Amino acid sequence: MGQEQILAADALGKRYGSHWAVRNVCFAAEKGDILGILGENGAGKSTLLSMLAALIPQTEGKLLFKGEEVKKKRAYRTQIGYVPQEIALFEELSGQDNLEFFARGYGLSKQQAADRIERACAVTSFQTEWLKRPVSEYSGGMKRKINIGAALLHQPPLLLLDEPTANLDFASEEQIMEAIRALAAEGVTIIYVGHQPELMEQLCNKFCLIKGGKQLLFDTMEHGLCGKSGERLSLKQRCRELLEA
Questions:
Q1: From start to end of 102-202, where are the E strands?
Q2: Cα–Cα distance, 163 to 70 (Å, whole number)
Q3: Span 92-119, mean pLDDT?
Q4: pLDDT attached to residue 1
Q5: pLDDT tens digits, one per residue of 113-138
Q6: Cα separation of 42 and 188, whole Å?
Q7: What is the DSSP string of 35-77?
Q8: Whole-angstrom Cα distance, residue 80 to residue 107?
Q9: Strand 189-194, strand 158-162: pairing
Q10: Fewer CB atoms < 10 Å away: N or C end of the chain?
């Protein structure tokens, strides 16, 4: 018996006027999967992620969460953690105040918030002595860790990440990747949108490649990296092969 399916896209598409930003995307992510969605700039990745986060409605197709079509968007959003590419924090407030703000939004008690904040810091390797300092004093990596931590406070089974390692130094990038692996090992399903195939090959067990809003391939890393000639390719090589076909 396979793992529980958490998120699936069934011929998902988004049209703006006569232009299809995304069309006919199909994939399934099970419990504990790390699914990488990658493509060149303008491929439709951000539009697709916005549909997966129920921030914009799809024009066609279905979004399924735990086997059921997502119809009640607000209820669905309480079940996911969403980390946008742009840092979404109050710079003048401390990290602690930011996390407590998000915890109140999730309806957590003070004790729950304290426990979850401690856990979020542990998972993301955030140094707790910095929690009392203003976010404006944080490095890019520290801000990213707090942003991810905020998305984990309500313990969602699904986490959506948009370029979570963008503009980070090597050490911070490694810590974020380790946090993602740890969450997946605990059973959290992760959708990772990015454009770095080398990093995603290390991290993800499934990938979905899109170009011009169209899906070129959805497969596992185990089976999807077989090239046209039958040889094993890197994810970067496989993407290049598909994009240039």
A1: 158-162, 189-194
A2: 24
A3: 96
A4: 39
A5: 999 999 999 999 999 999 999 999 99
A6: 28
A7: EEEE-STTSSHHHHHHHHTTSS--SEEEEEETTEE---HHHHH
A8: 15
A9: parallel
A10: N
- 111-to-16, 106, 107, 108, 131 alpha-carbon distances in Å: 45, 13, 12, 8, 17
Local confidence band at 102 (pLDDT 50, 70, 90 cut-offs): very high
Helices 170-185 and 110-124 sit at what angle, rounded to 10 degrees? 120
For the stretch 130-172, pLDDT in tens is 999 999 999 999 999 999 999 999 999 999 999 988 888 888 8
> Do 219 and 207 contact (CB within 8 A), yes or no?
yes
Encoded tokens for 101: 């703000």
Phi, psi of 140 (to 5 degrees): -60, -40
Question: What's the confidence (pLDDT) of residue 217?
Answer: 96
DSSP 3-state of 169: coil
Reading the block at residue 1, the tokens are: 């018996």
